[in-house]
Amino acid sequence: xxxxxxxxxxxxxxxxxxxxxxxxxxxxxxxxxxxxxxxxxxxxxxxxxxxxxxxxxxxxxxxxxxxxxxxxxxxxxxxxxxxxxxxxxxxxxxxxxxxxxxxxxxxxxxxxxxxxxxxxxxxxxxxxxxxxxxxxxxxxxxxxxxxxxxxxxxxxxxxxxxxxxxxxxxxxxxxxxxxxxxxxxxxxxxxxxxxxxxxxxxxxxxxxxxxxxxxxxxxxxxxxx
Length: 225
What we know:
One of its GO terms (molecular function) is oxidoreductase activity. InterPro entries: DSBA-like_thioredoxin_dom, Thioredoxin-like_sf. Residues 5-217 form the DSBA-like thioredoxin domain. This is Thioredoxin-like protein. By secondary structure, this protein is an alpha+beta fold. Among the domains are: 34-59 and 102-186, no CATH class; 191-225. Helices cover 51% and strands 13% of the residues. The chain contains 9 helices and 6 strands; from the N terminus they run βαββααβαααααββα. It has helices spanning 15-31, 62-69, 74-88, 105-117, 120-135, 144-153, 158-166, 172-184, 210-222, and strands at 2-10, 40-48, 60-61, 100-101, 192-195, 202-205. Strands 2-1-5-6 form a 4-stranded mixed beta sheet. Strands 3-4 form a two-stranded antiparallel ribbon. Strand 5 (192-195) and strand 6 form a beta hairpin. The chain is globular. The relative contact order is 0.20. The mean pLDDT is 96.
């Protein structure tokens, strides 16, 4: 059996990476049948990328930031919200009116730390919990409260979560190194999904439709023998 790693480069405050993750999950549900699972297994590995590394840890209101930097009029902002609502297709209820946008280094630090010490399933739940908290519930993307709650939702012991979250040096050098590695690999935007294949790797940049992820996964399955 061939074991394929799906390398997912993302930022927890990038809506397009949330869409890509959601669509990739749906594609995996379609492709990973009992028959294909005898040929290949897919494991997600998360790689950190910061779209805005100079953001403060406190941040600023999300809605205000989008208006100030991207959509300066009420009409433009409302159009953007409608576009993202459409992209979410009723499955991701994007919330751009509440919450703060802020530096994501601590969020990535926590994800990378537990990715090294827990199962892929736990890491996946942690990432999804952080996405949901930020994009749907209007929570701060990297406050201690948000991070600990996401860890608990992923099944991580609360005391362990508190220890890692509150010790800001825990895993810091490792996550900074991982971020630099992505930059050295030429990553300058997210999401980037690279699926390792026996014969060749498949790389998809940007949030693709479910069908495109299905096609890429099926190619890896086909070439796994």
